Amino acid sequence: MTEQKRKRAHHTVPRSHLTRFGQHPHAGRAHPHLVRVELPGTKRHLISVASATVEKDFYLTHTADGDPSDAFEDQLAEVEGAAATAVRRLVDDQEPLTDDSRERIAAWAALQHLRTPGQRDLLAVTAELTGEITGRGIREDLDDFPGSGPHTYVRHRELSRQDRDQLRATHLQSMVDSFRASVDTLLRRTWTVVFFRRKTLITSDSPVTLIPIPGADVRTPLSLTSNNGVLVPLDRRASLLMEETAGRDRVIAGTTSVNRRLNQEIANGARRCVFHHPDDDPLEGLVLPQPAEPRVMFERVR
């Protein structure tokens, strides 16, 4: 594949998702625009959905001959397209939530959770901690963490190009390995679709939000299997909540208080920024967090 034909700008959140929170293009603009708000809310600006969540070569793979390939990015696009159709039927056409739509949306939500820069950062800090534990300097390093813990470890070093290439390959393989089980986890849950008539929703650079378990031990990591609900904004006026509760899927009308709570959870789950429609003011009353820092919790065993 030639360099001219290969896509270099990879979207970590699909344009089809961001478009549902953007302003339709008008004179002089080729794509919908939305407002990007950098955490903790100090900077904001208009940005096109075509460039809002772009990372160069983020999903790059190589052929058996060693040539760079867009194959992984193309496979992601297929899942995104199928989910976009399901969301359009559910939100725009107000059709019932079918098994087919569930499968399509669950596949996208699972991949979206697995594919983010935040997940790659987490792999990096975990690998670094593992290297420290097995390295010769670990005794000195751990002296900085008195007592059994739990302790929080954050990344200390910058990655070389070779490290980044290896991390990318590890991340993509982890997505493949975890995909089916992640989809099944979401399909087993009870789904609630919440529609809003007046109030609007935000989205973020990490739009699949894991809601923390109330009262859980600080050492309990959030994951698709360990949370108090998986929240996905589908549209500026519709959200999806997947919970481990008994009962059937349902569609409900959202209230002002529910809207504020969901928007706060979406903001809490963001990595670097949140997005909203230029005509909306959905951040009023919210507490925007600091940018997320990848970290791993561990305990010392003496």
Task: Explain what this protein looks like in three dimensions.
It comes from Amycolatopsis coloradensis. Pfam families: DUF4238. Residues 1-30 are annotated as: Disordered. Residues 1-18 have a biased composition (Basic residues). This protein is an alpha+beta fold. It has one domain. It is built from seven helices and 15 strands. It has helices at residues 15-19, 71-92, 99-115, 117-134, 138-142, 161-187, 256-268, and strands spanning 9-11, 33-38, 43-48, 54-56, 61-62, 68-69, 151-154, 190-195, 203-204, 209-210, 230-235, 238-243, 250-253, 273-276, 295-298. Helix 2 crosses helix 3, helix 3 packs antiparallel against helix 6 and helix 4 (117-134) crosses helix 6. The longest helix is centred in the middle third of the chain and has 27 residues, at 161-187.
In short:
It comes from Amycolatopsis coloradensis. Residues 1-18 have a biased composition (Basic residues). This protein is an alpha+beta fold.
List keywords for this structure.
DUF4238; 5-stranded mixed beta sheet; 15 strands; alpha+beta
What assembly state would you assign to the polypeptide chains in this entry?
single chain
Low-confidence stretches: none
Return the structural class.
Answer: alpha+beta
Whole-number tally of structural domains: 1
Summed over residues and divided by their number, the pLDDT gives a mean of: 90
SS element count, helices: 7
Radius of gyration over alpha carbons? 20 Å
Number of strands: 15
Share of β-strand residues: 15-25%
Shape: globular
Secondary-structure element order, as H and E? EHEEEEEHHHHEHEEEEEEHEE
Termini separation comes to 54 Å
Walk across the major sheet and give the strand order: 10-11-12-8-13
Percent of residues in helical segments? Answer: 25-40%
